[in-house]
Design goal:
This protein is an all-alpha fold. The chain contains ten helices and no strands.
């Protein structure tokens, strides 16, 4: 679920920040990119402070607005923990997806927008007729890169919840780690079981990587064909 959220939200932000009329665009780009820098351990401390059911600012705001009648244990409630981890993952990695979209947007020739402006096209017409069609080859690549990046969430989940509570946030990497190294769950490590799960997970990632390589080659070939037709 975090992949489409990251792609859509980052695209909207990138389109807004790509506007040359926005003079503070570099400042906002830095603002969205900064969450990528802290380590998961620092993120855990920050999130536990913000979402604490005991005088945490998020719960204080929700209680003050009357949205909830009692504090929510965002990381201790099985119904809320996974959604909290997902929100944190989107917040932390949104900046890198935004950078991908910005690079794609800046590859679109400015002359196309100028010609559309002369023809009287508005912002929505430019978006529908120029921006989105020319972003399609990049969108496939950004989609796959984001999907692979989303699979690398072990450090964030392990530091925030450890896969709990009651396995509510246990992703595949944490599942493998628990079977291989956790002595709290099993009396002895289940290395064979963990190895089998690791092989399955590795094959799944390999399939995604192969699809990514194929899409990149197709996008490069399409760009070369457009250049050839342009010269012709």
């Amino acid at each position: 679920m975090t992949v489409p959220i990251r792609l859509g939200l980052a695209l909207v932000i990138a389109i807004v920040l790509n506007d040359r009329a926005m003079k503070l665009s570099p400042v906002f780009r830095t603002f969205f990119f900064v969450p990528l820098l802290p380590t998961p351990a620092i993120v855990r401390i920050l999130i536990q402070s913000l979402f604490s059911p005991f005088h945490g600012p998020v719960n204080q705001v929700l209680l003050g607005l009357g949205i909830v009648s009692e504090p929510i244990d965002f990381l201790g409630n099985p119904s809320a923990a996974l959604w909290t981890v997902m929100a944190v993952q989107v917040w932390k990695t949104l900046g890198i997806t935004m950078i991908y979209w910005l690079a794609a947007l800046q590859s679109i020739p400015a002359e196309l927008y100028e010609a559309a402006q002369v023809d009287g096209a508005g912002a929505l017409a430019k978006l529908r007729s120029i921006t989105l069609p020319l972003l399609k080859p990049f969108a496939a690549i950004i989609l796959l890169v984001t999907a692979v990046n989303t699979l690398r969430i072990f450090d964030l989940v392990q530091t925030m919840t450890g896969g709990g509570p009651f396995f509510a946030t246990e992703v595949m990497e944490v599942y493998i780690y628990r079977h291989a190294f956790s002595i709290q769950t099993f009396s002895v490590p289940r290395l064979g079981f963990a190895s089998a799960a690791g092989v399955f997970f590795g094959l799944a990632v390999m399939v995604v990587a192969l699809v990514q390589g194929w899409v990149i080659r197709q996008a490069n070939q399409a760009r070369i064909d457009r250049q050839i037709r342009g010269f012709g």
